[in-house]
Predict the structure.
Amino acid sequence: MIQAAVETRGLTRRFGALAAVRGLDLRIETGEVFGLLGPNGSGKTTTIRMLCGLLEPSEGTALVAGIDVAVAPEQIKQRIGYMSQRFGLYEDLTVAENLDFYAGVYGLSGAARTERLADVIAFIGLSGRLGQLAAQLSGGWKQRLALGCALLHRPAVLFLDEPTAGVDPAARRNFWRAIHDLARQATTVIITTHYMDEAERCGRLAMMSFGRLIALGTPGEVAAQVGGRTLEDAFVILQERDER
Amino acid sequence: MMPRFWPMFRKEFIQMRRDRLTLGIMVGIPVVQLLLFGFAIQTDVRNLPTVVLDESRTPASRDLIAAFQNTGNFRIVAHVDGRRALDRAIARGDAQAGIVVPSDYARRLGRGTTATVQVIVDAADPLASQAAINAAAGVAQMRNLLILSRAAGRADVPLEARVRPRYNPGLRSPNYIVPGLVGVILTITMVLVTSMAIVRERERGTLEQLIVTPVTKTELMLGKITPYVGVGLIQMSTVLLLGRFVFDVPLTGNVLLLYGIALIFVVASLSFGLFISTLVRTQQQAMQLSFFFVLPNILLSGFMFPRQAMPVLFQWVGLLLPLTHFLKVLRGILLKGVGLEALWREVVILTGFAVVMIAASVRRFHKTLD
């Protein structure tokens, strides 16, 4: 059996009495574009944070790129890229300085570093804005810069937590084009989103509610499992059920 | 070794350079503080405003009053003609001392019985009144000696204590304050700046992105504090140069040695700040906790108040502050001109502070969000 990009068994995280994620079983294959879908508070962000080693699981196991997050969280960090919901780069540094800093922190050096920086800058299309402070970039450009910084070390698995929140439609389309490019180069992409049109672009989806996995499969399969004709139907059904 | 230290260092350095306001404050604080402390704060109280009630009105009483004035401690602001006016002047704060020469002063002096002079001091401010009390006692003593020696037919007094105030012969306040100020300024700015270091990243949301990278805790911590070592040494140079050329504070000993030990002290102060940074969740808390730490440094280190006068418990508390030890180094090198042979214990203690606090910070900091 080939190694999965991510494999979790009974993954659980509690904050005090509240269980944010309960008994999650997932297997995500290498090169998938995998979506985590669900209303606010359903446990998507907590799941991603556990997989990145930012939060310790309360129970269960999670293997990322074959490494157990609870055992060796630091080893995982060289193999994953992560983009948080909130812009996490330094606004008082320029585009080039941010990229340069993350290249250094990910241990790139010499000719490999120069080459990789040039590649990534071309990929995210920021060559005209290298000298600008990150604070002056629009939402769409900030998101591209964050993606670039998360890609510098060629991560095997890329985690994107609501990357397109507050980004205009044209920039979102470009962003998704980039994500499918990455998947074609065998990067596994795990993405959380609110937007139905984005969920439709994922190869497979996991739908979460109250910390539980309630549906898993292609967008069509997930819709059917929840009992809606389209994914949007399914999402509305779910949200109404949650609110009751 | 520590390959990610340099990127961290470079990033912090660029951010520090770009934050003009903070940088300006860090360079401006030493100058303002030095001028404030150097000019305004004088511990030797002179020219205490004084009212005089001379009921004797004789050459002898005027002679006595002149003797008081000549000490430099009393500045006569008014002559009053009644006890009530004198009391009122002191009560209202127009004067802080009053000299009362009774009507029988000259008569008693001439007869050889004890002549009295009354000196009233406003002791609501003990520090100010102490100097006046000492001066008044001194005036009486000198006059006594003079009169007694004359009566005994001697040209000179029988005993004289020759006190040599070594290391600060003029007993100048700046010589005492300025070296201490180097340590106080370093403590304030170094602790305050680094106490913000990690919480700022947490508040701005940049910490989350940073801790999903392979950067180690030690690389992160050291990279964060190192740029400020340079700032600390610049601050110290500013104070020393201004102290030398504006306040005439001597640089007696080996300045290179002073910089070497200062480097250790700066790192120790920075690591205290770093530790505070790992305890708090917001920048505001960091600020409050820093002040909570800085205040005992000013009060208990011996910067302004002599440690010998403190209860033993507080002397012990003072020993837990790096500034207490660094003050010994500063005064030792700048005023006494002593070297490592006299200061090695302080060096060991300061190094210990730095190592323990950095280790404690690394231990307390977790690369997780909870």
Notes: The radius of gyration of chain B is 28 Å. Chain B touches chain A at residues 3-4, 6-8, 10-11, 14-15, 18-19, 204-206, 208-216, 367-370 (CB under 8 Å). Chain B has a mean pLDDT of 90. Residues 217-246 of chain B form the longest helix (30 residues).
